[in-house]
Amino acid sequence: MKFISIVNQKGGTGKTTTAISLGAVLAQKGRKVLLIDLDPQGNLSYSLGINEFNHTIGDVLMGDVAAKEAIVHLKEEGLDIIPSSIDLANIEISIAQIEERELQLKKTLTGLRKYDYVLIDCPPSFSLLAVNSLTVSNQVIIPMQMTALSLQGLDLIYSTIVQIKSNLNPKLKILGILPVMVDKRRKLSNEIKAYIEENFDIKMFESSIRNNVKAAEAPSFGKSVINYAPSSNSAKDYQAFGNEFLLISK
Amino acid sequence: MKFISIVNQKGGTGKTTTAISLGAVLAQKGRKVLLIDLDPQGNLSYSLGINEFNHTIGDVLMGDVAAKEAIVHLKEEGLDIIPSSIDLANIEISIAQIEERELQLKKTLTGLRKYDYVLIDCPPSFSLLAVNSLTVSNQVIIPMQMTALSLQGLDLIYSTIVQIKSNLNPKLKILGILPVMVDKRRKLSNEIKAYIEENFDIKMFESSIRNNVKAAEAPSFGKSVINYAPSSNSAKDYQAFGNEFLLISK
Ligand SMILES: Nc1ncnc2c1ncn2[C@@H]1O[C@H](COP(=O)(O)OP(=O)(O)OP(=O)(O)O)[C@@H](O)[C@H]1O
Ligand SMILES: Nc1ncnc2c1ncn2[C@@H]1O[C@H](COP(=O)(O)OP(=O)(O)OP(=O)(O)O)[C@@H](O)[C@H]1O
Ligand SMILES: [Mg+2]
Ligand SMILES: [Mg+2]
């Protein structure tokens, strides 16, 4: 059972879209997948059409409900999800007062059935929630736009992960950077890609996800782009990424 | 002297790019402009080439230094800035313990020279920092991508602003929503725009900012796109927005 953080503290870098799309591709390939929405803004839950639910990841973190009780099964997508809601913002503040606060997710995310992959969608900040995700995870995927501002964020992500690796979770491994919303015609995309490859000791996935309106439309239908528009460029790109992921994530 | 929050808790919606570009356009038109980087990730500071500084907005918030002391003058852009650094993340946590914590920015942002506009760039969350910005502000600009997930965020922004207006700052006024990174060919952009106009009681600016690689390149040169690429589409769009802003912001 692999726990994978989808992380980038920069906003709008395709974290949620990647968590959903990768999850849907893996589910199509017969893997058992659990998605966890760890963002108080609940984009992942919303994108999969989840408006009503009994329990959230916040309830799980507070120890009010067992993780298993908070699971919603999505029949069409073939995967499970633990949703979030805005109460998670206050719960993050409460957890900050607990001793071993970075371990709260690890302590409460127990008693789950045997999933192949648990993908955790993180919020755009290096808040306690993201640290909790990195502390419980085996692997990390970093979706990134190929822009100048994304580079500024990369330093911070890398040093945060190095810190967590040495203090809290030695087994944590960066699987790689996934270039997203790529416009292949742009010189900038290739320049940023090359710069990262030369200056950072982080693997970059071969696959990249093109900028494609279908990915931006899918959330209003409550579906992954994989199911909403299977022949679209973004769906095809995520299929290729899913294959690459399966090879590397052993 | 008008204080304006550039706010949207959704990540990557062009807040920082808008704060810088609008500021640069107003400065070109002879207005005295101060930019405040209120994001611990310091994108605004980085985008304007500020790597070394004596004081940050964090020092100001903690009362360690007068606001005036933290100002950096940017000669080429013709505007002033109070930068931020990652220490702002811990400072936000400290401020949360203070009584009247939503008023800390209002209390410490004093003794400034007479600026025409103070533009405050907010982080991607509805954290205490964003609330402080909204509490001290006269006006709000909401930059938004025209995608389905942006709509989910709009409810939350609106209710947060309504709450602050009734509890903390009755004079707060939403100037409008600015569509950013727009691809005019996309049906989705027009659908989202129409949906907002029909369902939200929030004005939408006539101007919109097109998706344009020059805007994504500018930060690596430490310049606003207005100065980096004055004849680019994004620079022209921000010029038009600057004119519209001046008419409305009276
Ligand atoms: N490949 C793509 N092509 C076009 N639009 C995309 C693509 N991937 C994501 N988007 C859109 O871009 C916006 C940002 O993506 P997303 O919400 O997945 O990023 P995020 O990193 O999770 O953001 P946040 O930091 O706010 O959590 C969304 O409106 C999404 O629908
Ligand atoms: N008009 C545009 N065309 C193309 N790229 C743009 C445009 N405006 C902004 N960008 C790029 O898109 C990314 C997100 O923009 P920006 O950082 O300004 O958003 P933000 O809302 O401040 O993000 P965050 O939520 O992380 O603070 C950046 O890499 C930026 O350079
Ligand atoms: Mg997200
Ligand atoms: Mg920003």
How would you sum up this structure, described in words?
- The first copy, chain A, is of the alpha/beta class and 250 residues long.
- The model of chain A has no long low-confidence stretch (mean pLDDT 95).
- Chain A has a seven-stranded mixed sheet, sandwiched between helices.
- Chain A has helices spanning 15-28, 43-47, 57-61, 87-95, 104-108, 128-136, 148-167, 187-199, 213-217, 225-228, 233-248, and strands spanning 2-6, 33-37, 72-74, 79-82, 117-121, 139-145, 173-180.
- Helices cover 42% and strands 15% of the residues of chain A.
- The longest helix of chain A is centred in the middle third of the chain and has 20 residues, at 148-167.
- Chains A and B meet through helix 2, helix 7 and helix 9 of A and helix 2, helix 7 and helix 9 of B.
- One magnesium ion (MG) binds at residues 15-16, 39, 43, 121 of chain B.
- One adenosine-5'-triphosphate (ATP) sits between chains B (11-17, 39, 43, 124, 180-181, 209, 211-212, 215-216, 219, 234) and A (10-12, 124, 145, 147, 149-150).
